[in-house]
Amino acid sequence: MRDRRQPVTARGIKRMAWLALLGCAWAGVAIGEDWRQWQGPGRDGVWHETGTIDKFPADGPKVLWRVPLSNGFSGPAVFENRLFVTDFVSSGGDDTPDPGKKSELSGRERVHCLDSRTGKPLWVHEDECDYKISYPNGPRATPTVDGDRVYTLGAEGRLNCLKTDNGEVVWTRDLKKDYEMELAPHWGFAAHPLVDGDTLYCVVGGKGSVAVAFDKMTGQERWRALDAASSGYCPPTMIEAGGTKQLLIWHPESLNSLNPETGDVYWSVPMKPAYEMSIIAPIHYQDYLYAVALQGTSMLLKLSPDTPTATEVWNGKGVHPDHNPPLVVEGNAYGIDVKGHLRCVDLKSGERRWESLATAPHGRPASSATGFMVRNGDKFYVMIETGDLLIAKMSPAGYQELDRAHILEPTSRTGNRKVVWSHPAFANRCMFARNDKEIVCVSLAK
Q1: How far apart are CA 211 and CA 141, in angstroms?
Q2: Is the pTM of this model over 0.90?
Q3: What residues contact residue 268 under an 8 Å CB cut-off, 6+ apart?
Q4: Burial of 391 (0-12, 13-18, 19+ CB in 10 A)
Q5: CB-based contact 104:133 (threshold 8 Å)
Q6: Is the dihedral of CA 52, 53, 59, 65 positive or negative?
Q7: Pairing of strands 121-133, 237-241
Q8: CA 210 → CA 163, 181, 222, 247, 263, distances in Å?
Q9: For the residues of 99-115, what is the DSSP string, one character each?
Q10: What is the per-residue pLDDT across 260-314, written as a single tens digit (0 to 9) for each?
């Protein structure tokens, strides 16, 4: 057989180097940054990708795809060109969004897996589910993706571990049944599951089991901890402070730091929000911990650098959101208050620097007004409840809006208005946002 190998010329070497460089560049564009859980890679609302827009195109946002979806408050998660999102299909009952009562509704909770590049459905997992919760719109918790597994938590406490490639069930648990809870929390199970190492952490409820650690591979319980009349809705949060890892669990009676290996309590501080609405994960910034809720509930704690202990700096100041987390940037907290006022607060003093109604629905205060903020470089993307996406810059000097565009129709109901109450995902220079009718992919690439 004739030897087909030829000497490699200098021109050939240059061409191969150029092709390799081009391939790496395209690979970077294709892969981008995953958004595999609530609030992104670090669960901190920070999106690190570059090459994103400051203004929308003249003819409006570039929509790459739209896919039908049913009801739900849960946000999407994106991992390796797969998107995971949950919803609820009702088969009958009372879906009145009344904060004072639990409505009964029958139907199916679903987990969808889509190709994040095209929106093509890849698989669906379904569970029959009867709701008896307030605002029975659908699942609340965003899926958590960990390699070849995705963890989902339904509004009535069904915890699933599914294979990401085909939706096959690895294991499942009924938290309400397993932990002897007669009813789900008033607004349903909502605390986004957390994976750290080989452990899955969940906020559950029941006697002595507000916090539960599971083996992420098998679903077997490793430990349970804390007792309270209600578990609340705040996701478990992992920080490193005082020379060790600390698992933060905030239920409606106190904010607690646990040893993540054993569940033993390092420290506990009383913190009782109105209506048992411990919702927003405490924010770790330098050696401080910032926790907030509606109606004046807020606290700044100083964390010891040497031991897992905490001391109070101030309480009752700053911004007081309903369920949308603020962001802390360079010592300033930016958040949307329960009536829709966007505020900047000096973190160490708790004093307000400025406020604006730019993020309020139609520029007017409203009860439980909501907007979800993500920081990307020196700008913020803010998805407000009217379905508008805002692009803005914020600093202690004030708010500067760069652009805004309408993305989704508000479909969920609260009081006398319709809202979008779902945190978007940001990955591959795109935003993925949903309402109760569809999920949409919008390009944010320059």
Answers
A1: 16
A2: yes
A3: 254, 255, 256, 257
A4: buried
A5: no
A6: positive
A7: unpaired
A8: 27, 11, 14, 13, 11
A9: TTS-EEEEEEEEEEEEE
A10: 999 999 999 999 999 999 999 999 999 999 999 999 999 999 999 999 999 999 9
